[in-house]
TrEMBL record:
GO terms for biological process: DNA topological change. The keyword DNA-binding applies. Gene3D superfamilies: Small, acid-soluble spore protein, alpha/beta type-like. It comes from Metabacillus mangrovi. Keywords: DNA-binding. SASP are bound to spore DNA. They are double-stranded DNA-binding proteins that cause DNA to change to an a-like conformation. They protect the DNA backbone from chemical and enzymatic cleavage and are thus involved in dormant spore's high resistance to UV light. This is Small, acid-soluble spore protein, alpha/beta type. Belongs to the alpha/beta-type SASP family. It holds the Pfam family SASP.
Length: 67
């Protein structure tokens, strides 16, 4: 995740970026992916997809359970 100042995605919770970055590197480690420009878009994208999947699961659990 790039830290672009031009991004329309703004974090509401202070410190959330550090938590997201930690999750990103944990998932990359689990998947055996070395994040960076030299890595394929598919490999980098798999990490981003897994982050989204886990965040959705966490949100569902906090709202009373997943469907």
């Amino acid at each position: 995740m790039a830290n672009n100042n031009n991004s329309s995605n703004q974090l509401v919770v202070p410190g959330a970026q550090q938590a997201i970055d930690q999750m990103k590197y944990e998932i990359a480690s689990e998947f055996g992916v070395n994040l960076g420009a030299e890595t394929t878009a598919r490999a980098n994208g798999s990490v981003g997809g897994e982050i989204t999947k886990r965040l959705v699961t966490m949100a569902q659990q906090s709202f009373g359970g997943a469907r």
